[in-house]
Amino acid sequence: MNFQELARDCVRALTPYQSARRIGGYGDVWLNANEFPRAESYSLTQPLNRYPECQPPALLAAYAAYAGVRAEQLLVSRGADESIELLIRAFCEPGKDAILYCPPTYGMYGVSAETFGVTRRTVLSTKDWQLDLPAIEAALGETAPKVKVVYVCHPNNPTGNLLDHDDLRRLLRMAEDKALVVIDEAYIDFCPDMSTASWLSSFPHLVILRTLSKAFALAGLRCGFTMAYPEVIQLLLKAITPYPIPAPVADIATQALSDKYGENGLQRVKRNVAEVINNRRWLQQALSQCSCVDRVFPSEGNWLLVRFSDVARVFRALGEQGIVVRDQSKQPGLAGCLRITIGTREECERAVQVLKEVQ
Ligand code: PMP
Known about the structure:
The chain is α/β, with parallel strands linked by helices. Helix content is 36%, strand content 17%.
């Protein structure tokens, strides 16, 4: 049987997303996937013999309280990644519509569009990694393929910067009656004051993505949230699978979002964020004194983007010492750059020790 012929054209042609797990690597210091470096422990409190609720009410209520939105403005999914895909499935017609995003940025927007035969429109960020609004406006004005969803990442992975709030407001105004504007806030817990969640009541076409994979130290749980106008949430719920959130996921996520559980609750998140920011500051300072480092870019997330004079050599030297980081040098404008997740202080020190010896 010729399975290649049987498969859809767009899947046959697809280059799958190269996740940190898929790329793999060997080592004992994992600074390649923007995970939190230490695990927390939880116990299950719910039975498993029944199907879970499609949208577990206790979990929705807990995240709504955390994010300052109403439960009807919220959808919970298998990580923010599922929501990126769901938005395309619910709003873009394959072979007809497009999504738009601004490289260098997170790779899953493009891959998700490709798997559904939806056109990818890209508008490169400006030199300081802000939105090129005139170019975006021109793309939004085109009728075929028609841009239905715009994805922007705030703070942006992998460049680490926030987007200018006035630019985001301008983008929302230019997309009005044309497209959804999805602000991916996967890393906003590290800079919560910069969230755009309070704008949801002013812009019904604004969609915000969140996740428990980063500051909540729960990447293995696979739990993400979409905040949007209730009618948009209802459309997404039409396209989602019947039981997307396994009962243990809802159980643990609800505990992580509660203050009732002391160490497992929101206090722990605050402590995680403070620890990451502290280590990030230390690493930034230490890296700026390494001679192989060309530039350390400021970051609002749980990583640093670093440009090296000889990136291949640095990547090899780190790998030989069991330190796995993420190569970003193929992304537009990021030649020579590696993304280094903020690990424990000891892990950061091990990376710096290696880098000090690379000439
Ligand atoms: N958006 C961005 C910008 C990310 O970096 C990630 C994690 N790689 C995601 C979304 C997906 O997060 P999740 O683990 O919730 O699927």
